[in-house]
Structures are given as structure tokens and as C-alpha cells.
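the two lines:
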Amino acid sequence: MPLIDYPAPIRELIVQMKSLPGLGPRSAERLVMWLMGRGAGRVGGLAKALGELQERVGICGECGFFLQSGDPCPLCDHPKRDRHLMCVVEAAADVLRLEGSRAFVGLYHVLGGKLSPLDNVTPSDLRIDDLLRRVRELEVTEVILALGADVEGEVTANYLADVLREGGVMVTRLAQGMPAGGGLDHVDELTIFQAMNGRRRMD
Amino acid sequence: MPLIDYPAPIRELIVQMKSLPGLGPRSAERLVMWLMGRGAGRVGGLAKALGELQERVGICGECGFFLQSGDPCPLCDHPKRDRHLMCVVEAAADVLRLEGSRAFVGLYHVLGGKLSPLDNVTPSDLRIDDLLRRVRELEVTEVILALGADVEGEVTANYLADVLREGGVMVTRLAQGMPAGGGLDHVDELTIFQAMNGRRRMD
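prediction for all of em together
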């Protein structure tokens, strides 16, 4: 008697789902069973949304935030933003957290990660050359480091402060109002607002 | 200053993801951010797998298990299975749990749920008419009720035992080796094996 299993398309989707972050084998199977049953009407919408993500979303070559294909960058190309003030963040999602706090009106620079020798993340893996070029070209007067308060965030902040000060620009960082050990992802907007206002110069 | 948000395709995918069972707004956002970054190579595969699910998977009109379009049912059309023995389960996933225990070689019947007055699930919402027709047509001699040991499972088992016995067929159920309050989803294969072997007749 051969062992019965789901048809190949179901197995393939379970394989695809269970390797997504935060989904294990059991929750992936339950999700696919839901899509085969009560959620059948949602399969098309999900597939379409994934297709649109691939086709219509790009990344701004300057700041590193997301961009709808063909559109100008909502941050870099906004006429009212202060082009001499630049805020460095780890990830694109951090831009939304800072915008939500309404404490910052300058430009952003998404690093794409933080230095981590244990995970083999070195300065050349982050968008640091682009940062130095933009600071020079835009004649930025202050760079605000809005990195997480964990060990890798501290290491990255200290490294960036060193290379940026060599170029003669003032470097500040978010005030230590942020909870220790946490990234921008885990704090509320008021905390971000206070941290932005209390930022201190790195000497 | 307008509030910055993700481009529309990203927002749309977050909306789609966060309404899936087991995914909240935060985990949906993190998942989409992962797909925009390190997981970019996975977007196409996921969209394709969802499309295949929609196009190539159907449900067997007899047993209710999944079927690859165009193929015969791997259960109903298998020549070596005992066609006079029928096992009733709540959901298609339960078939795999029972097959994994290798304790059963008859046919299956997927009910598609269990009776639940609180959720407005009545006998007409389940595949009970199909079950009675198959039992009659196939001249089934024993129907094994492999339903969860929770309240709705008990109610469903008692209801089915009543209508099936009227037709003169023997009705058995899985032995109460199963943990109280749990469905087939939560037990290991050995427990299912013991429960199948110790099944008892309903009088």
C-alpha cells in the first residue's frame, strides 16, 4: 500500500510556506488547508499581490527606501524635506517608525543591516559608501544615527561616527531613551519622538 | 508634510498576509519586509505555488480528499483498499494522520467539519448525505468514526451513529486512547494506531 500524501501542488506550497520566517511545518500545513477550504477565495488575491510586489516595487538607489516603479522617491524627491540633515537607519521599516513620530524632516539612508562579525556582516555589506557619497554631494551638516541600542547597533554607530567625522560632518545619535537591547521595531512612537529630540553629539 | 507609507503593492500584500490564520499585523509586515530583502528570490516561487494550487488541485466528489486535476483519487480508486470499511474524519488533513499510523486500509469520508450549533454548523452543512449514499452504494459493513474527542466531535459522532444505525450498518469509533479535548491534529501516530486498534462499537 503506497503512503498517501497531498497532491504535489499542495506539498509544494507547504514547502514554500514553512520556510518563511515565523512559520513552522504545522502552521504552514494549517495555512494551506485553510486556503484549500474556507480561504479558497483568497488564493488568487495572494498570488496577485505577490506578483505586484515583484513587478511594481523597487528600491530607491539613493536612500534605500521602497519605491513604486516609475514613481519618484517619496522621501528623496520631496521638496520640503531638509536636505542637509540625514538620518541613518538599519532597515526600510525603520523609516516608517520615525515618520510616525513626526520628529524628523530630513532625508533618510537605509543601511540594509548592521555590522555583525559573528554573522559575517562587514562594512562592505552595508550601504556605507553610498552614505559617504550622499553626505558629500548633498553637503549634509548633521548625520543622525538611528540604530538599535543592541551590541551590533552600538558597534555600527561607532564605526559610522568614525568614518563620518573624518569627512568633517557632525554625527549625533538618538537619545538613550530607547529601551536597552531593543531595535526601532519594538518601541512606540512617543519613545522614538523623545529619543529623536534628546539626540546627543558623539565626541 | 504627507505621512510616508509603503508603496501600494507592499501595503496590499501586508493586508493579504495579516488576515491569514496565525499571522498578525506585525508578523505580516516582517514577512513582507523579508520578502523585499533577503527573501526576494522566494516571491516568484510562492506566487507560482499559489497559482498551481488554484489550477491543479481539486477535491474528490466521493471521499472529499484532495485530487490532482485529471488524476484518479488515490484513495477511492486504489484497487487494494477494503471498500466495505469506511472511516469518517472531520478534515482532509486527518486522512494523512490516519494513513501515517498505517492502521487502516479502507475508504475515507471527509465530513468537512463537525456539528456546532454555536457556529451555526448543522447536518446539512456537512457531507452527511454523501456519506449515507456511499455506505449504501458500496455496501459498507462498518463505519469508523475518527472524530476529535472534544464536545463538537462527540455530538457529531452521536448524530452520525444514530442515522447510520438506522441504515443497518455497524458503527464504531476510535478508542478513547486519544487525549481529551484534542483533535487528530494534536496526537502522534502511535496514539492514533492504538486508538484505531481499540475502537469500540456504539450501542
